[in-house]
Amino acid sequence: MLINGTEDLRVQKTIDAIQKTFEDMICEMDYEKITVKELCERARINKKTFYRYYSVLDDLLAELQGVMIEEYLERVKNYRIPEDLDKINREFFLYSAEKGSVYEKITCSGNYRYIRGRMISNVMDSTWKSSTWLGLLESSRQKILLHFIQTSTVEMYSKWVADGKKIPLEEMIKISNQLLCTGVNGFVECNAPI
User: Which residues form a coiled coil (predicted)?
Assistant: First the structure.
């Protein structure tokens, strides 16, 4: 349940406790292992209280996912596709780096593949639907292009996180933009040993 500030202070504190505990648990364990019972014990609420605000854990996860999607879409809403793909990719990396370990777990862990897929589809639908250029491509070519962009971007981010973010963020953005926007040939040209 998203709070809008008009709720009673106790309600706000309860929802905050549920959300914070849920985020902590996502960082500690796979989603399938999270139970309402343990979440309630950790948040120091009873199960009835949880069910007053959420029907199931999936609702809580969907809410978290929705917030993340909306925040990111707000950042890229003025960019044009495909002309600003480099800027959109940059925003993806900056946003991802700001969100911390919960976002990293959802974005990088194989256990969240389905959830991540829904998030990516929502973002891609929102950003690419206004592209007249994309509309000129036949459907099968659209799907291949979108799949390439989605998987390439997320996989580069995931690899960067898995490697301990050893490459500085700005350099990682540059590398990912080179690969995403100019392909391997552009990357090789810019990174060839002298």
Answer: none
